[in-house]
Each structure stands twice: as structure tokens, then as C-alpha cells.
Design a protein that fits this description.
heterodimer, A: 302 residues, mainly alpha, ABC transporter involved in vitamin B12 uptake, BtuC, 11 helices, B: 248 residues, alpha/beta, Rossmann fold, 6-stranded mixed beta sheet, 10 helices, globular
């Protein structure tokens, strides 16, 4: 078989992994499965697209950076989109999740996130229609890098971006007081308050990290595949599978889980057929839940 | 008695509205004192100090710390106000290293001060030094309590509040914990201690209160309270069979 599936798998895995970081953080710190996380991706992508168009309309079309398909305007727009998505997550938490969370029943919050997911998605369809759109229609030439593998400049850039972001989040979690506070809150919320951690502040940081990474994952999908209102919702199952495979609460676990699922999907497409792609995350999710429910880096409840 | 650090007046607190567990308890803790709160099972000792620490809703009375009313202060602000609480169980973050357990509690300290303060804690609790990179969940029962106390002391609290530090430990670790508390006694830290193990607690305490049915019923010098007939009666009154033998 061709080894091309490795590149495809790593790229899909990067998108899944970046999304799964948000899922795993929300689950371990706020203690609910946020089904609206995929729609944060889509909203972030459309916001980024809107900013790119606005920049293009104001300053004229920008030349792409080197061999890439996108220019500086996309990078600027991505930062704006990340901020927008973080604000969207904070707003949704303020008007919806935080009120329900204070009642103490996780399942109500989960259902609310499901409702929010549908509402957010429908709003996108209403505004932008369900017709796919693109950041760029330029066609990139894939470069051969040996072993029968080809990769485009965009793909290399996005893999590097993922690596930088994952390293950044890992350092945030392990080396900073904010990260230690997030770990503390996920391990023992009552004790976290006792040692002086402001829970409301840590919750805000969690939404900001999760929301902005969801935007990056969405924009990656937008660059490499296409932009649709359902783009994030379709990622929900792989993201949850990745978060659970990696072990809930673990950032390296979420990323590794994403890469494993991405590679498995790409391999399955090549070996069995494209119609089986979606089944792969489901099969992996079921297998993990049967064999090792706490995941690769997970730790049992104590 | 020297100046009062903690002054609790007629405290009324409980988890359910209209069903107070603490019903008008008053105590004072002077600077540098170790004050013990004793009482039979179900007397509301734990609820009493959890309420002081902001973890149980207070429905009446006031709590003053250094003359400041902290009755309504949220739990996460207590450390900044000068009150450090050590819960009875689950008082460490099990997946974080010993060192990160200490660091995460340093939020109110100056950044420059933190490394030196951590070394001071290691000097005071040498058992923890060798384990600084170990996940706290892998520590022994006694070491866990040391870590929990070190984590509370690291922020220079005006008063250290301990909820039954010997609960659930094997006899070997109970003595380790009381040796540690005796060490704290020598270091001039002000301590409010709730203990089930009355004899050991009175041995290290300065003064003690006996809490019965959510009220402070008796107060005295710790060394004298052990032989005080009133104390025996307060305990005996609650659980006659159990204490007839040797405990009380």
C-alpha cells in the first residue's frame, strides 16, 4: 500500500487533536461533554473567512506567502477568529452553561450544549447557506518527499502550526500557575477553592483555550478541505473518540488520540474504502470503552 | 491570653436551610496558640471549622480574623485573608507532583518569593524533599498529611485550621502526624485543630473547647481538660457504653 495515508492521517489527526484539547479540557474542568464544541470550530472558521474578505475588500487582494495558498491576511484573520471564538464560548457559558452548572446536574448542561450546537449550526446555515466555500481556490502542487509520499506546502505549514500550538498548550498546563490551577480544578474542585484558586477565572481560561484552538482546527479544515456549516459537527465523534482514547483531561493524550484516529481513518480509507471513514472513530471509541475506559494517559477515579 | 487572631461568635451553620448543624458555637484563638476543638461523634466539629473556612453556608453569627469580619468571604479568598484550611481527606492533588502541589498554593505570594518558600517547607518537612517529583497520590498516609499541612503553611497564614489530621491513618502514621503538629507548636504558628483523638490532641494543645450538639459546652486549659470531670460527662452523656472502658 502507498504510505501517502501517513500524511493524510497526520493532517486529519492534527485537526481532530486540536479540537479534542478543548473537549478534554471542558470535560475535566467543567465536567460536561460540550456537544457545541464542533460548532465553535465552524463559527471560528466563518469568522476568519469574514475577516479575510473584509481585509481583501479594504486593502485589495494580498499575495500568498511564498509557496502557500494563503497570505498574511489569513494569519491576521485567524488571530481575530480565535479571539472571536473564545468570546463566543465565554458568552455561551455566561448566558447558558454557567447558570445550569450551578444547579449541579451535568446531564442538563450536556443537553443544553446539544441545543446550543443545533442553534449555532442553523444560524450559520441561515446566514451563509449550506453551500461549501473556500479560503482559496488555488491548486497547490504536492511535492514528493520520498517513499511515494507527497505533501503540499500548506500541509507542511499546518502540521508545524499544530506542533507549535500543542507544545504551547502543554507548557501552559505544566509550567504556569494558570495551568497548575486548571489541573488542580480538574482533580479536586473543592480543594482548589481552599488553596485560593479563583474557579471562575480558571473556567474563563478554559473556554478561551478551548475556543481559540477550535477556531484553528476549523480554519485548518477550511484550508485543506472546505468550509461548511456542518464542518465542526462532523468532527464531533472523532474529537470525543480522541479525547477518550487519550484519557480525559490529558492534553498530550488528546493530541495523540487525534493522531491515532486520523491515521486509522486514512489507513481505512486506503485499505477498505472511503465509505468506512466515519466508522473508524466509532469502532476505536467502542474498543477503548471496552478495553481501557480510562484511555491511554487516563487515571482511574479515586 | 495574647491578642485574639480568630474570634467566632454564636456561629450557626449547616448544609440545609432551616437545619443548622452548628447552633451558636463561640470560640477564640489567640496569637501563637494551638486551640483544640473536641467533641463526640456528630457534634458538628467538622461542620464548624468548614463553615469558618467558607465551605458550609453560615446562617448566623460572625467570624472575625484579625478584627476583620470574614463571615461572608468566599472560600477561595480565605488564603488571602490569612486563613489556611487543611481538609480531613482528599487534601492533596493526587496527580500533581509534590512540588506542584506546593506551587499551586502559592498564588498569593510574590513570584520571587516562591522558590525560597518551597525550600523552607522542604526544610520543615524533610520527608517531602526526596519525593518532590513524585505524584502526590503515591505518598504514604503520613506524608500526604505533611504535604497538605506544608501547602497550607506556605502562604504564611495568620491561622492554620486543621480538620482531624489523624483521621483514617494507621497508628504508625498517627504518631507521625502528631510529631509534626508538635513541631508546628514550637514554630509560633496559630492553629485551630479539630480532633477525634482527644488525648493526643490535648497533649499538644494550649486550650480546648468541647463541642456538643453544635454548641461549645466547655472550655479549658488543654493539659487540665483531660482529667476534667465535666468533659468526661459531656462525652459519657453522648455515648455511655463506648466510653465506660478506657477512652474517656
Amino acid at each position: 500500500m502507498s504510505l501517502q495515508f501517513i500524511v493524510d492521517g497526520l493532517l486529519t489527526g492534527s485537526m481532530i487533536g486540536l479540537g479534542a484539547i478543548g473537549v478534554t479540557l471542558t470535560y475535566s474542568i467543567l465536567r460536561f461533554s460540550n456537544f457545541a464544541h464542533g460548532d465553535f470550530m465552524a463559527w471560528g472558521t466563518y469568522a476568519t473567512l469574514a475577516v479575510v474578505s473584509a481585509i481583501g475588500a479594504t486593502f485589495g487582494k494580498m499575495a500568498p506567502i511564498g509557496p502557500l495558498s494563503f497570505g498574511w491576511s489569513l494569519l491576521v484573520a485567524l488571530v481575530v477568529g480565535m479571539a472571536f471564538t473564545a468570546l463566543l464560548a465565554l458568552l455561551l457559558d455566561k448566558v447558558l452553561f454557567s447558570r445550569l452548572r450551578s444547579q449541579g446536574q451535568a446531564i442538563i448542561v450536556v443537553m443544553a450544549s446539544f441545543g446550543a450546537s443545533m442553534a449555532l449550526r442553523s444560524l450559520l446555515e441561515f446566514t451563509f447557506t449550506s453551500r461549501p466555500t473556500y479560503f482559496s481556490r488555488a491548486i497547490q502542487i504536492a511535492m514528493p518527499i520520498g517513499f511515494g509520499i507527497r505533501i503540499t506546502p500548506d500541509q507542511i505549514a499546518l502540521l508545524l502550526l499544530t506542533a507549535v500550538l500543542v507544545l504551547g498548550v502543554h507548557l501552559l498546563m505544566t509550567r504556569t500557575q494558570t495551568g497548575r490551577s486548571m489541573q488542580a480544578l480538574s482533580q479536586n474542585a473543592a480543594l482548589a477553592r481552599i488553596v485560593g484558586i479563583n474557579v471562575a477565572k480558571v473556567v474563563r481560561v478554559t473556554w478561551i483555550v478551548g475556543g481559540s484552538l477550535a477556531c484553528v482546527a476549523g480554519v485548518m479544515i477550511g484550508i485543506l478541505v472546505q468550509i461548511r456549516p456542518f464542518m465542526g459537527f462532523d468532527m464531533l465523534l472523532p474529537m470525543f473518540a480522541a479525547a477518550i482514547l487519550g484519557g480525559i483531561g490529558s492534553i498530550p493524550g488528546a493530541v495523540l488520540g487525534g493522531l491515532i484516529i486520523g491515521l486509522a481513518e486514512a489507513g481505512a480509507v486506503q485499505l477498505i474504502g472511503a465509505e468506512w471513514r466515519a466508522a473508524v472513530s466509532f469502532i476505536i471509541l467502542m474498543a477503548v470503552l471496552f478495553v481501557r475506559p480510562i484511555g491511554l494517559f487516563g487515571v482511574g477515579e479515586r | 491570653m495574647s491578642e485574639t487572631v480568630l474570634d467566632v461568635r454564636n456561629l450557626e451553620a449547616g448544609y440545609e436551610p432551616g437545619m443548622p448543624i452548628v447552633r451558636g458555637a463561640s470560640i477564640t484563638v489567640g496569637k501563637g496558640e494551638i486551640v483544640v476543638v473536641l467533641g463526640p461523634n456528630g457534634a458538628g466539629k467538622s461542620t464548624f471549622i468548614k463553615a469558618i473556612a467558607g465551605l458550609v453556608p453560615i446562617t448566623g453569627g460572625t467570624v472575625f480574623l484579625d478584627g476583620k469580619d470574614i463571615t461572608a468571604a468566599p472560600a477561595h479568598t480565605m488564603v488571602r485573608l490569612g486563613l489556611a484550611f487543611v481538609p480531613q481527606t482528599e487534601n492533596i492533588f493526587p496527580l500533581m507532583s509534590v512540588e506542584d502541589n506546593l506551587k499551586v498554593a502559592c498564588g498569593i505570594l510574590e513570584r520571587r518569593e516562591i522558590p525560597a518558600r518551597i525550600e523552607e517547607m522542604y526544610a520543615a518537612f524533610p520527608d517531602l524533599v526526596r519525593q518532590r517529583r513524585t505524584a502526590a497520590g503515591n505518598l504514604s498516609g503520613g506524608q500526604r498529611q505533611m504535604l497538605a499541612v506544608a501547602r497550607a503553611l506556605i502562604v504564611h497564614p495568620k491561622v492554620l485550621v486543621l480538620d482531624e489530621p489523624s483521621a483514617g491513618l494507621s497508628p504508625k502514621f498517627v504518631s507521625v502526624v502528631f510529631e509534626m503538629l508538635a513541631g508546628i507548636r514550637r514554630s509560633d504558628v496559630t492553629v485551630l485543630l479539630v480532633e477525634q483523638n482527644a488525648k493526643a490532641a490535648l497533649a499538644i494543645g494550649d486550650r480546648a473547647y468541647v463541642l456538643v450538639e453544635g454548641k461549645d459546652r466547655h472550655e479549658g486549659v488543654a493539659s487540665e481538660l483531660w482529667s476534667d470531670p465535666v468533659v468526661a460527662e459531656l462525652y459519657l452523656g453522648q455515648r455511655p457504653q463506648h466510653h465506660k472502658g478506657g477512652a474517656a
